[in-house]
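can u do me a favor
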């Protein structure tokens, strides 16, 4: 079969490799589409601590069941499936409490098992147990289903921070994740949504999601503009949807007294120390939420919201490319001139 194989930093190759066998209690999936994630881009340019070359990455996956294992139950050949990559143990104290996003023994497809930038992939038994492999709703394309994983994490983050009716929400970072947060905050009843980004090109792409205001953070007066927009009170919720210590620091300034701040974007290894004004946190009575990953119900809900048009997946997919063009896609994502690139396998 044809696959994209990661050999080293900035060395991805299209190769013919052996088709994987179907696990006895798993599935063999014929991959139809795989979203290109910012994490894949970071792996290309800087490697990944959990990935040892040669390896197949790609974790925003949709496809059709080619073969069902002899002992597999609940799935059938021809099922159209969206595969969220997170595999929980189901046994640790957090899983038993239903907080799967805190799993102590979490594994991921594309890290512990080969991923979706290939014509076929084996889905292990463990991935089928707790509900992160779901049937694609009728009428939803493989490309739309492939990008159901990122909003799953956004749903979890906004659940935890209780984004709700009447809230003012500021989202720092207007990439695809920031745009997912915009749509989800609107679904949850946010009254005013402001999106902030360094790049004007990003803000132009974000216009399609109808935030109430778009601001360039390169403008030295943007914090004052935000203050004016919130009548001098600040925002109920600030979501840092980018990898920036400056954005984290600004978030504490932007949040109102008693506000909630979500740190959604991870920082680069070796550059993850952020200098925060502890007095702002203390005297403003702020709550800061670190938010990463999701539970099975969030992925199921993400698929439903996309299938009902509440999350408009088509607006995110600015480019659909063949596997052979993935390097061009990676460079476009890094330059910030696209939203979601989906690789059609």
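np, heres the sequence
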């Amino acid at each position: 079969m044809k696959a994209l194989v990661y050999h080293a930093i900035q060395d991805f190759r299209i190769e013919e490799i052996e088709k994987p066998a179907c696990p006895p209690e798993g599935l063999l999936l014929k991959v139809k589409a795989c979203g290109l994630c910012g994490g894949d881009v970071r792996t290309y340019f800087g490697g990944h601590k959990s990935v040892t070359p040669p390896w197949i990455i790609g974790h925003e996956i949709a496809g059709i069941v080619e073969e069902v294992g002899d002992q597999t139950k609940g799935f059938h050949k021809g099922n159209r499936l969206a595969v969220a990559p997170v595999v929980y143990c189901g046994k640790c104290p957090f899983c038993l409490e239903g907080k799967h996003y805190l799993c102590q023994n979490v594994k991921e497809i594309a890290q512990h098992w080969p991923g979706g930038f290939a014509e076929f992939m084996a889905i292990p038994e463990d991935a089928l147990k707790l509900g992160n492999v779901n049937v694609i709703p009728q009428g939803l394309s493989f490309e739309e289903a492939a990008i159901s994983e990122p909003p799953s994490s956004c749903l979890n983050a906004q659940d935890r921070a209780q984004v709700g009716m009447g809230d003012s929400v500021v989202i720092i970072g207007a990439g695809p994740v920031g745009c997912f947060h915009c749509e989800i905050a609107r679904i949850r009843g946010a009254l005013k949504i402001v999106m902030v980004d360094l790049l004007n090109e990003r803000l132009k792409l974000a216009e399609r999601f109808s935030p109430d205001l778009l601001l360039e953070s390169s403008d030295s007066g943007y914090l004052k503009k935000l203050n004016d927009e919130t009548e001098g009170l600040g925002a109920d919720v600030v979501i840092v949807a980018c990898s920036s210590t400056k954005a984290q620091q600004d978030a504490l300034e932007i949040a109102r007294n008693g506000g909630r701040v979500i740190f959604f974007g991870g920082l680069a290894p070796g550059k993850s120390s952020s200098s925060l004004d502890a007095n702002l946190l203390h005297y403003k009575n702020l709550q800061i939420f670190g938010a990463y990953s999701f539970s099975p119900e969030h992925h199921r809900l993400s698929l439903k919201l996309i299938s009902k048009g509440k999350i408009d997946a088509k607006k995110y997919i600015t480019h659909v490319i063949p596997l052979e063009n993935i390097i061009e896609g990676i460079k476009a994502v890094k330059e910030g001139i696209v939203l979601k690139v989906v690789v059609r396998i």
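Residues 2-150+294-344 form a domain with the Quinone Oxidoreductase; Chain A, domain 1 fold (CATH 3.90.180.10). hope that helps!!
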